[in-house]
Prior knowledge:
This protein has one domain (3-74): HPr-like (Histidine-containing Protein, Chain: A), CATH 3.30.1340. The protein is of the alpha+beta class. It has helices at residues 11-22, 42-48, 65-70; strands spanning 3-7, 28-32, 35-38, 53-58. Strands 1-4-2-3 form a four-stranded antiparallel sheet, with helices on one face. The longest helix has 12 residues, at 11-22.
Amino acid sequence: MPVYDIVIQTSVHAQKLSHIAEKYPFDIWIQGKSGNADAKSLLGLMLLTIENDVQIVIGDDIDTRDFEIEIEEFRTYNEV
Length: 80
């Protein structure tokens, strides 16, 4: 299961990430300390990203190469 550490610093960044997520047919989840939200939901993104350090989680067996390119500016590279 691909997991990406990201930081969303502003509401503009949250809008951009939501717009990117809407382009893809697969589920994209944002996971934070307080819970999970659908990345295609701007409201959910805004609530979770108050925490700053969150993760994007995508299901197995999905080609995420194009998605990874689009989210590059949000990544923190804290993956272990």
